[in-house]
Amino acid sequence: MNADLVVVGSGLFGLTIAEQAATELGLKVALLDRRSHIGGNAYSEKEEKTGIEVHRYGAHLFHTSNERVWEYVNRFTQFTNYVHRVYTRHNDEVFPMPINLGTINQFFRSAYSPQEARDLIKEQAGELAGTDPENLNDKGIQLIGRPLYEAFIKHYTGKQWQTDPKDLPASIINRLPVRYTYDNRYFSDTHEGLPVDGYTAWLERMADHPNIDVRLDTDFFDDSHEFSRSKVLGQVPVVYTGPVDRYFDFAEGDLSWRTIDLEEEVLPIEDFQGCSVMNYPDEGVPFTRIHEFRHFHPERDYTKDATVIMREFSRFADKGDEPYYPINTDLDRQKLLKYRDLARGEKSVLFGGRLGTYKYLDMHMAIGSALSMFDNKIKPHFQGGAKLE
Ligand code: FDA
Fold it and tell me: How close is the Cα of 381 to the center of ligand 1, in Å?
């Protein structure tokens, strides 16, 4: 077999491992993906008619305060100075998000100072003060008061989970951020931006090394190729970033996920909503938000004749759906512990990434975690003969 290391999944976790193994250790790496493109969920492509870059698996905004990750990603791409801001359309009125002094003053038709707004929210949240909420609805009211919670959070969360927040556990939210300034930057990380020439150019540069053999349309569990599970296990170390329950043939049961459906539309107008993301927190609207991709790159010379929008619908994933967000019920956590035990028994396989660890990871977290796995496990194994586990 012509590989020193097999990496299953070419998302940002797998790409980082493959790139480091090839560049730092000179290893021959087989990088497999069952999809027909690299990059996992960060993949993007130009919409055919307009040339506007569309994020195929939902909007991806890069942000990090991790200096090592920032230095690392800048080896492969430059970033624009895009700053993410989100708006929300409630009762046919548009408000800035996350909830900030601008949202509060617009909502209450007032001109509160920061302290006055704090006092107001404290008073409204006092409705359930001193109680220990069991469901998400009561927790939301206790955190920010009923009026703001019911306008901006209640139905949005209900749509995300297809469940009345009264039937969701309070543990889903620890805090609901409210800013008592007019700052409506969505992220507060040190670094933020979008790859200048698009996600796919960035991701392809990471895989562009003579020692990296990219195999697309190649499922690790399909026996018809030379890098399948049955052929490589015990022969060569494997980094597996697919779903952990799938690896063990669902022996401990399926882990539950939420997925999203994305409905794309090309409209014959220059600008649909004036911003990249508009939330829809009202009950009567079936989708959670609309993305308009031209606004991610105001510096680009996109056509003025058309724009691309994408409506996002959220639901529980069935078998065969793309797993996007771990649901993490008590039962899921029990199953995950069993899968972790099984994973420890696989001596030549390392499990990583969003699917391999059943943990939502932002891009910078996936990259950071892959760099740590490379430093702490892969490098010592290949350089000093340390065990892989
Ligand atoms: P990822 O899922 O990207 O890649 C796993 C790869 O493994 C896939 O390509 C899959 O095809 C492959 N695979 C699975 N099983 C296989 C098998 N049996 N054989 C071969 N290949 C197999 N982050 C952020 O920083 N900012 C953002 O705005 C967003 N937005 C966002 C929106 C949505 C809807 C989601 C779901 C996620 C985000 N993210 C994000 C998170 C970001 O997508 C995440 O960090 C990366 O997906 C993590 O990379 P991984 O490599 O772990 O998984």
Answer: 26
Q: What is the mean pLDDT of residues 13-22?
A: 98
Which one from 33, 213, 245, 312 is the annotated catalytic residue?
312
Measured by CA distance, the residue closest to atom 52 of ligand 1 is 353
Query: In this predicted model, what pLDDT tens digit does every residue of 102-114 receive, in sequence order?
Result: 999 999 999 999 9
Strands, E assignment, the chain:
5-8, 29-32, 44-46, 53-55, 62-64, 86-90, 93-97, 191-193, 212-215, 238-240, 257-267, 277-279, 289-292, 307-316, 325-326, 349-351
Query: Catalytic residue at 217?
Result: no
Pocket of ligand 1 (CB under 6 A): 8-14, 32-35, 40-42, 57-62, 219-221, 241-242, 260, 324, 353-355, 361-364, 366
* Paired strand residues for 261: 313
CB 289 within 8 A of CB 260: no
ipTM greater than 0.85, yes or no? yes
pLDDT tens string 23-63: 999 999 999 999 999 999 999 999 999 999 999 999 999 99
Q: Residue 317, SS3? A: coil
pTM above 0.90, yes or no: yes
